[in-house]
Amino acid sequence: MNRQTTAQDHAAWPAALLAWVRGRLTACAHGVMLGALALAEAPVAVLAALAIAVPIPGAGLAMRRLAELTRRLSGEWCGVPIASPYRRLPARYGARLSWRQQRKLMFTDPATWRDLLWMFVNPCVGAVLAGGSAAAIVYGVFGMALPHGSTQLAGAISHPLYGILLAASGFWAAPWLLRGYGGLARSLLGPTRQAELALRVQHLAQTRADTIDTGAAEIRRIERDLHDGAQARLVAMGMTLDAAGQVLDTSPAAARALLAEARDSSVRALGELRDLVRGIHPPVLADRGLADAVRALALDSPVRPQVTAELPGRAPAAVESAAYFAVSELLANVAKHAAADRVWIDIGYEGARGDGEIRGGGMLRISVTDDGRGGADPGHGTGLLGTERRLAAFDGVLAVSSPLGGPTVVNMEIPCVLSSPKTSSC
Q1: Which of residues 258, 280, 302 is at a domain's end?
Q2: Does one domain contain both 170 and 218?
Q3: Number of folded domains in the chain?
Q4: What is the C-alpha separation between 277 and 226, in angstroms, rounded?
Q5: Distance (Å, rounded) from C-alpha 260 to C-alpha 266?
Q6: Are residues 110 and 71 in the same domain?
Q7: On the chain, which terminus has fewer CB atoms closer than 10 Å, C or N?
Q8: Inter-residue contact 203 to 144 (CB < 8 Å)
Q9: Strand 343-353 relative to strand 306-309: parallel, antiparallel, unpaired?
Q10: Which of 382, 381, 384 lies closest to 408, judged by CA?
Q11: Is 1 among the domain residues?
């Protein structure tokens, strides 16, 4: 057994070494490209600085585009994601802005001045961090190629061994220098604490307004269903009972027929009330939790989904309700528009279990996939948009991938804490 393990370890060494070398080479290449981008930002920084006093069309926009590119590359190449710090445009400006309006809005945004500072710092400091590994490798290789004892390169490399050490150090440190570049970029291009709080307040205000509107629409729907359904049947049943009472002495047979009609009306009214209650908060959801409620929902769907659920506890009741109705809306969309043959629903949770609860950083994840025609777009129609707003009230997100021809994959994530299965979900 030990011999077999040792042989496997020896066989894994070349692959691990190759992956290590490939990672360093990729980091060096990314550093060179980021260094080149840093040097290219210098003239843009000068134009943007001049645009403060002299209107130069496109200078501020070009600076912002370069800053956004740096943020994206920092997340993809350096492993340091940077959130966008810019203020949202006021609704009164609409979708189209003249370049003068753009200039005014940009230069009244504090993030623009941090972008401008970055444009001056990046060519000096950022280029050194990003391209430092490649420069060390080139400098070291050049030193190794010099004759022994050469005093060229200002005496910095007087022996080939120094060149080898310098090149090896640059190759080894490439990922660390790249992460340092990402940290520097985040310190200037990321949102400040005050900006994060402002964006958070703005997000909460928007989700609060959406939640209020959704609640008001739900109340109107309940009132309409009660008025048009159960209330109308109860009024008709009262009139039928009144008519039965009037003919009870003179025509018992007619009275019995009217009573039978009233009984049928009461049964239908009770069924409509049960459907209405189920639409507000299904009993199976309250009694057995999200996983079993979705399985019950799948049984009533025209396209029978395959449900896979693994939840180590119960989410808060409000989160379970939002997730349940989100899945219900997605299944309704599949049945109406997707022309799908198969649907898969996957429910899971990621979080660390503590004593009695699953604590900290937990995320409820739900994926709904169908093999239909595709082309679903949250920007068109109210179904997906309403689902997105429902989840936003809990800081949840909805991501849709639906190319034409399918498949359609809808992923939902809701941050929450699961209670222990032995405790109440409330």
Answers
A1: 280
A2: no
A3: 3
A4: 11
A5: 10
A6: yes
A7: N
A8: no
A9: parallel
A10: 384
A11: no
DSSP string over 73-138? HIIIIIS------PPPPPGGG-S---HHHHHHHHHTSHHHHHHHHHHHHIIIIIHHHHHHHHHHHH
Q: Which residues contact 17 (CB under 8 A, 6 or more apart)?
A: none
Q: Do residues 276 and 296 both lie within one domain?
A: no
Instruction: Enter the tokens of residue 217.
Output: 């629409």
CA distance 424 to 14: 53
Distance, in Å, from the CA atom of 38 to the CA atom of 131, rounded to the nearest integer, reads 10
CATH number of the domain where residue 313 is located: 3.30.565.10
- The answer to whether residue 160 sits within a structural domain is yes
Which pTM does this prediction carry?
0.55
In this structure, the chain runs to a length of 426
- CB 186 within 8 Å of CB 80: yes
Residue-wise pLDDT tens for the chain (426 aa)?
445 545 555 556 777 788 888 888 899 999 999 999 998 888 888 888 887 777 777 778 888 899 999 999 999 999 899 988 887 765 455 456 666 776 777 788 888 899 999 999 999 898 888 888 888 888 877 766 665 444 444 444 456 777 788 888 888 999 999 999 999 999 999 888 877 777 777 767 776 776 676 667 667 776 776 777 777 777 777 887 778 788 777 888 887 888 888 888 787 777 777 766 666 667 788 888 899 888 988 888 888 788 998 888 888 888 888 888 889 888 888 888 888 888 999 999 987 444 334 344 588 999 999 988 888 777 665 567 778 878 888 888 888 888 888 788 899 999 888 876 544 333
